[in-house]
Amino acid sequence: MSQAYDPSDEGAEMSFQDRMSYSDYLHLERVLDAQEPLSTAHDEMLFIIQHQTSELWMKLAIHEIGSAMRMIRTDQLEPSFKMLTRVARIFEQLNSAWDVLRTMTPSEYTEFRGALGQSSGFQSWQYRAIEFLAGNRNLAMLRPHAHRPEVIAKLETILAEPSLYDEAILLLSRQGFDIGADAKRSTWREPRTENEEVLEAWRMVYGDPLRYWQLYELAEKLVDFEDYFRRWRFNHVTTVERIIGLKRGTGGTSGVSYLRKMLEVELFPELWKVRTRL
After folding, report:
1. Lower Cβ count inside 10 Å, N or C end of the chain?
2. Total domains, the chain
């Protein structure tokens, strides 16, 4: 019988009195004590952890998108590519999480749905922050957060600055392209309107990738991000319909019907339309 392996024989630290441990660094007690089911239903723990971990991934996405925007603003495109790739991978991870939630059946969800009150995923301020950062600036979606001034302040800070897509369009202008009405914008809160000049600029980029390689690469990073974001929305719709059918959502939305409307939203419209133009 082989002797039990002792990591300390190879120098591993085994005593953490007055030292920072793994748990200390990650504040795991705070994280692992944050799950407080309101019912005795077995599957409520799955539901809570699914949404809490999604919020953690969204926090990272916000961090990466904000950093990518700052890089684009200062013409440091190479670092922004890495950050935007990471955002796409984050949404790939979020997509995989729906597979776990879909193991819950309608009967199992019914056991604790009443405990949720009016809480609903569409009230996630971090999800709203991601949409605002990307460029979908639907100001009506500020209202669910009106009772939390600190959240409104964070969202208004995002709305006061150009979005990720705005930064990409402004970059086109700095590199000599005509961006039409987008060059005259002085406030950023309101949704932008698609314009032909931006579409034509992207057509020129895609028409000569070698000449405009960095702009071409940026465009494809943005499309990757929206591709995974759309898949996330689609998986959300499918999961909700599988679990609650066509019932109204807990937050009062029309449920599946509301989520289907969200599938029609384009974050970077000219980048999708340019494919038809080529």
Report:
1. N
2. 1
